[in-house]
Write a structure and sequence with these properties.
The protein is built from six helices and three strands. The protein is of the alpha+beta class and 96 residues long. A hairpin with a 6-residue loop joins β1 and β2.
């Protein structure tokens, strides 16, 4: 049975708002069982993630597939550098 991560409050890594946060796996959990990812990453690397608000988290998953996230956006730097995500994060930062 996997660890259940509970929601907590703090500053969102992406939009900077102080709000409830969720845990975003940088490599989506659905892909952790695939041989290519097991060979390339350690268990610790597969479980790395960031604390983001629900709006940013939804935006990340709405814009990109899990495979795209795993291959192109497996770091906070890559997520923050993406122009489409920058627009979304800036929009979220203006919300209540």
């Amino acid at each position: 049975m996997g660890l259940k991560r509970t929601e907590h409050f703090g500053v969102c890594t992406c939009c900077g708002r102080n709000t409830a946060l969720t845990f975003h796996h940088l490599i989506p959990r659905k892909l952790h069982r695939r041989t290519a990812f097991k060979k390339k990453y350690s268990r610790e690397e597969l479980n790395q993630g960031i604390a983001v608000c629900r709006s940013c988290h939804n935006g990340i998953h709405d814009l990109y597939t899990e495979m795209q996230l795993a291959k192109q956006f497996a770091s906070l730097t890559a997520l923050l550098a993406d122009p489409a995500l920058q627009l979304h994060f800036a929009w979220v930062a203006k919300q209540k």
